[in-house]
Write a structure and sequence with these properties.
Growth Hormone, Chain: A, single chain, mainly alpha, EmrB-like, 17 helices
């Protein structure tokens, strides 16, 4: 039998702002950790006596665990409550971050990165859900704009902060900085969200579906992460991972479509808004990943930038949303969001075409900076508008 609770009134005033800070900080913490270790791999590998190729498992292990945890968040939240799951995730994310910073060999570090990735999975969807649940309906557009701003800024701060820490402090601090942030989030949420738990029901976990999900998503993530190192399909390992992933994902769709207790609610794709939103966000993130992952690597490996300057070259991707998101949040209800989405994708096309014809090894810092300004504007437009107009509308 489901445990029902009366819906608490939305928060107001200083309490609402403190909760907003706490939930945004949790999102920032998770997004920061997805990129902060990228520039630190050579340093970590050298300190732990491992090769750089072995050190990349620090990134891969987190990504695989995170990709697996996100789809099961809904079922877990339904079973134990959104707030309780969120608090547990923050607690163990912080503890695993502490253990990562204290690791003395690569195997131990990878183990705790897996734990960290599993705990990181629920943070973004639950922080967004809890934020919208506790905001007055007329202010939810503004809340979503603030949340989107955090998602944009954190991945840009990661490489800059990671490079600075590795150049000036011990590499362990790239993980240890999560601990004080986690304590702040827990303190504020335990104090201000007390008695605001969501409804729960004793949902059974679909083990066959979970197994197929782990094999499919895990195999796909490892294949994508290790493909370049292993020479893609010239490697038997990559071929095996691809076959396992494809078979598992196809089987997962078939199983979940016929299961009475699916771990993934595929019926959501019957909503046109949801389907268009998911496809659009997927395409947008594919484009955006080139800016925050591939371009900084190009600057460091080909153009001689260090980690800090490579991060600074793309800092406007995170800075521009600071200026634009509040405006969208205030006036977003008066604008046709479809126009903003279309405009953002047109900006993508123009900007990437401009990059393709002007970016040379001799290009100066300011041209990179100029391109990053437009990247920040379009990133803010597509993330906020897609979440608000397509996905969030599903709940209404």
């Amino acid at each position: 039998m489901a445990i029902t609770k009366s819906t608490p009134a939305p928060l107001t005033g200083g309490t609402l702002w403190c909760v907003t800070i706490a939930l945004s900080l949790a999102t920032f913490m998770q997004m920061l950790d997805s990129t902060i270790s990228n520039v630190a791999i050579p340093t970590i590998s050298g300190f732990l006596g491992a090769s750089t190729d072995e050190g990349t498992w620090v990134i891969t292990s987190f990504g695989v665990a995170n990709a697996i945890a996100i789809p099961v968040t809904g079922r877990l939240a339904q079973r134990i409550g959104e707030l309780r799951l969120f608090l547990l995730s923050v607690t163990f994310f912080s503890l695993s971050s502490l253990m990562c910073s204290l690791s003395t060999n690569l195997d131990v570090l990878i183990f705790f990165r897996v734990v960290q990735g599993l705990m990181a999975g629920p943070l973004i969807p639950l922080s967004q859900s809890l934020l919208l649940r506790n905001y007055p309906p007329e202010k939810r557009t503004f809340a979503l704009a603030l949340w989107s701003m955090t998602v944009i800024i954190a991945p840009i701060c990661g490489p800059i902060l990671g490079g600075y820490i590795c150049d000036n402090f011990s590499w362990g601090w790239i993980f240890l900085i999560n601990v004080p942030m986690g304590i702040i989030v827990l303190t504020l949420c335990l104090t201000l969200l007390k008695g605001r738990e969501t409804e729960t029901s004793p949902v059974k976990m679909n083990l066959p579906g979970l197994t197929l999900l782990v094999l499919g998503v895990g195999g796909l993530q490892i294949m994508l992460d290790k493909g370049r190192d292993l020479d893609w399909f010239n490697s038997s390992t990559i071929i095996i991972l691809t076959v396992v992933s494809v078979i598992s994902l196809i089987s997962l769709v078939i199983w979940e479509s016929t299961s009475e207790n699916p771990i993934l609610d595929l019926s959501l794709f019957k909503s046109r808004n949801f389907t268009i939103g998911i496809v659009s966000i997927t395409c947008a993130y594919l484009f955006y990943s080139g800016a925050i992952v591939l371009m900084p690597q190009l600057l460091q490996e080909t153009m001689g930038y260090n980690a800090i300057w490579a991060g600074l070259a793309y800092a406007p991707i995170g800075i521009m949303p600071l200026l634009i998101s509040p405006l969208i949040g205030r006036y977003g209800n008066k604008i046709d969001m479809r126009l903003l989405v279309t405009f953002s994708f047109l900006m993508y096309a123009v900007c990437y075409y401009w990059r393709s014809v002007t970016f040379m090894p001799t290009i100066d810092f300011y041209r990179h900076h100029f391109a990053a300004v437009f990247s920040g504007i379009r990133r803010c437009l597509f993330l906020f508008t897609l979440n608000n107009d397509f996905v969030f509308r599903l709940a209404r």
